[in-house]
Write a structure and sequence with these properties.
Distance between the termini: 17 Å
Strand content: under 5%
Helix content: over 70%
Shape: globular
Number of strands: 0
Number of domains: 1
Order of helices and strands: HHHHHHHHHH
Structural class: mainly alpha
Largest sheet: none
């Protein structure tokens, strides 16, 4: 989105007979499918491990599911910041910073530090907002509704925010 805004091709995209929602969702799902294909191309590694040993196949599958959902979360955050700025480098830096905040919020060191300064209830809230906490739960082989719902909500919220930014820019 940032490069399209910089080059001016965003106007062409937004004047096509599609809605902003369709354009954003199309770009997001195309990128997410590309990430999914890249993730599937790592599948020879588990096949080799299965051939050489006796790993927990369920944990491998849930690890792939968790990685796919985590990639979708990162991609949604990046899409939002790409729509927010005209410069790809600034968009990248903002995306990395936002993703780092969402990852490190679940880090035990971060949580221990926060426990010294804020109430335990707020520490639990910060931990529940962490991408890392939900990804680790899934990658251990435990697929719970709350973790899947968390990733769906994160992806939906950031993609919706991207749509709002583009709708606002289109109106101006």
């Amino acid at each position: 989105m940032a490069e399209e805004r910089k080059s001016g091709s965003i106007e062409l995209l937004l004047t096509l007979p599609i809605t902003v929602c369709q354009a954003v969702l199309g770009k997001f799902f195309a990128a997410w499918c590309f990430l999914g294909i890249a993730l599937l191309l790592t599948f020879p590694l588990p096949i080799t491990v299965i051939y050489l040993g006796d790993p927990d196949i369920g944990q491998i599958i849930t690890g792939y599911i968790g990685a796919f959902l985590l990639a979708g979360g990162f991609l949604a955050i990046g899409t939002f910041f790409s729509a927010l700025t005209k410069n790809q480098v600034i968009s990248f830096i903002l995306s990395v910073a936002a993703c780092a905040i969402f990852v490190f919020a679940g880090n035990p060191t971060t949580l221990d530090y926060l426990a010294l300064t804020i109430s335990p209830a707020l520490v639990n809230v910060v931990e529940s907002l962490s991408l890392q906490t939900h990804f680790e739960s899934i990658s251990r082989g435990i697929v719970e509704f709350k973790d899947i719902a968390y990733f769906i909500i994160v992806i939906s919220a950031w993609v919706s925010a991207c749509m709002l930014v583009l709708e606002e820019r289109k109106a101006n």
